[in-house]
């Protein structure tokens, strides 16, 4: 509630010594600055606002309010700021708030005024109770403007205590229940911890789990941590309709028109009045005109009359039903005959706005645009579509044993297949892809690759180097570059996984460190990285699991999630059934190529008997 009798003053004249002698009011907070955040909460409560500051006056002036330095020289304290504000105040009351308390109550002015008036006081200050102790907050105070001379006399006599002049005036204390609303931010650590715009830390997300063990993490817990930690990329762009295929919609598309625009016929036939239908007798109607799609008729059907109408033709005035042409007999002299009970009133008429009403959402933000969506948007006359910026993903493989295609295979070496598998999966997601090749097992090379990827991509995917092997330097380097955790997940294949966020050069990227075995790479990507990348794109597309009957028994122990390659087909009864492809070793990529699905055996499941239903993930159609 805005109170016209109160002016507001933001106290920003302090030194900020505990924060490194910086100007606290101008420190980044909540997507802007602390001062801007406080002003946003103060402005709606008072008639006008000013800022008391002794440095960076131009920066504070950019907020569009008066900026007043202290009148009392050599004393950069809140009492000097209060004196300055009282001398310039043009309303009966002045409310002061500090620049380092961005959570001030929305009803601060109203409650302080009520307390001051109830006690017939000169000044009201906020008080809270913490751990049974009463805590005054004298910088959150409402003062009568005519008390300026009393304060100036106190300061001129050398007084400096915030409450030192209280014996000369009448003071009221107003109790507030929310102590956190008066919290002041004094250090950089507090600033970062309390900033609402600060990205969450992995420790914050992990703390929500009741029993977190990085060496035995269930699949669903790892998925939840990743889901809660990643954030969508905010940048958007407008693209031509055809270029929107496969992109993520950045805003709701509101239909500008009714679809269809008019009541129209659902088929070729005859438009008539429902009230003319006879329940027990043959009906004869005279045809007075023909209605074609795109060409409306001005004819109005009267009793005993109808119009020939084509599919999509606008319903003529007075008509509300259509009888299909194959259900009538056409006589001479443009007369049709139909048997009783052929149709009911309102049959075969499509209503205006039946598909979409003007003003309703045709497509919702976050939808991945498919061919049918292009058609829908075209039917609305939409030529350009707001979409999320394409996600930039960098990826590389690690290992001295890896060779790229075209290089000779030395003894003990293998061709790098993981990069091609990852490329294909990222391509299906519609990402902008940065292939960084193979990075050797060398600390300097790995760190350089991660830094380069971080500065040029939104997300990084690595394969190999996240286990506990002697040459796996990736663990130490990832941890040094950012907020990264290493998990042993209760799953098969693909137990080791690294996840987090690294930063370099003022930029950051989410990191997914996948295992090195080829099948484990695919499993880890589909069940951990895929959903996270889609979430970064602004889309929600959970994996579409289907139910199928297991052809044979599958051995499994409860306590871990297993992903087995399978072939889905239809049994003799037409029901979907699945069989596994044989050996399920994590290095046997051929079995993944032969499979058309993956059988998902959940953490709590035990062995599966032949004929039991299991969850199946189809490979075809995955974005």
From TrEMBL:
Q: Give cofactor(s), names only.
A: Mg(2+)
Functional pathway? Cofactor biosynthesis; molybdopterin biosynthesis
Under Pfam families, the record lists: MoCF_biosynth, MoeA_C, MoeA_N, NTP_transf_3
- Which subcellular locations apply to this protein? Cytoplasm
Q: Does the keyword Nucleotide-binding apply?
A: yes
Which leading EC class covers this enzyme? transferase
Q: Which residues form the signal peptide?
A: none
Boundaries of every MoaB/Mog domain copy: 394-535
Q: Which reaction does it catalyse?
A: adenylyl-molybdopterin + molybdate = Mo-molybdopterin + AMP + H(+); Mo-molybdopterin + GTP + H(+) = Mo-molybdopterin guanine dinucleotide + diphosphate
* Domain notes per entry: The N-terminal domain determines nucleotide recognition and specific binding, while the C-terminal domain determines the specific binding to the target protein.
Q: Which family does it belong to?
A: Belongs to the MoeA family. Belongs to the MobA family.
Protein name (Swiss-Prot/TrEMBL): Molybdenum cofactor guanylyltransferase
What organism is listed for this UniProt entry?
Massilia norwichensis
